[in-house]
Specification:
There is one protein chain. The chain is α/β, with parallel strands linked by helices. It is 38% helix and 22% strand. It has helices spanning 3-16, 39-54, 83-86, 126-142, 146-151, and strands at 29-34, 58-62, 73-78, 106-113, 116-123. A five-stranded mixed sheet has the order 2-1-3-5-4. β1, α2 and β2 (58-62) form a beta-alpha-beta unit. α2 (39-54) runs parallel beside α4 (126-142).
């Protein structure tokens, strides 16, 4: 798939939601689920999306877990206690006990969402979420295997 074609699909996805046709072509697929994001969080998710696309991965930013169907990996971005967190299944079924009290605190937790491996990105505030998304983007950019870098 050419970058231009992908951008067309990504634009249509933003307007209409993710459809299975966006995943029709081969390659690893990552869905970034943003639940009511602020502008800084949207920007940081865009940085991660660009890093993934530079590694020849398909990436779509969606607004709900149901739109992530068909992804090989889901990155769920949510505030602690939000509906997005409730749809996230952690190994062992237990939530981390530590509270995210500072605006720049963050947590990245492996688990499952929408039938796929997932990483839950949480922050005490927008700053913490931005830090976490930029950390993931940096891992993708500097790693030889982008998918493995997201699972670290």
């Amino acid at each position: 798939m050419q970058r231009r074609d992908f951008l067309k699909i990504a634009g249509a996805t933003a307007a209409c939601g993710l459809s299975t046709s966006a995943w029709a072509q081969g390659g690893e697929r990552v869905a970034i689920v943003l639940e009511e994001p602020s502008e800084p969080v949207r920007w940081a998710a865009g940085q991660l999306q660009q890093a993934l696309e530079a590694k020849q991965m398909h990436c779509a930013v969606v607004s709900g877990a149901e739109q992530a169907a068909g992804a090989d990996l889901v990155i769920a971005v949510a505030r602690p206690g939000s509906a997005g967190v409730k749809g996230f299944a952690e190994p062992g079924g237990k939530r981390a006990a530590a509270e995210l009290t500072d605006a720049d605190s963050l947590r990245m937790t492996p688990g499952r969402m929408a039938g796929a491996p997932a990483v839950l990105v949480e922050g005490g505030g927008d700053r913490g979420v931005v830090y976490a998304l930029l950390e993931l983007a940096e891992r993708v950019e500097s790693g030889a295997d982008a998918m493995a870098a997201l699972h670290e």
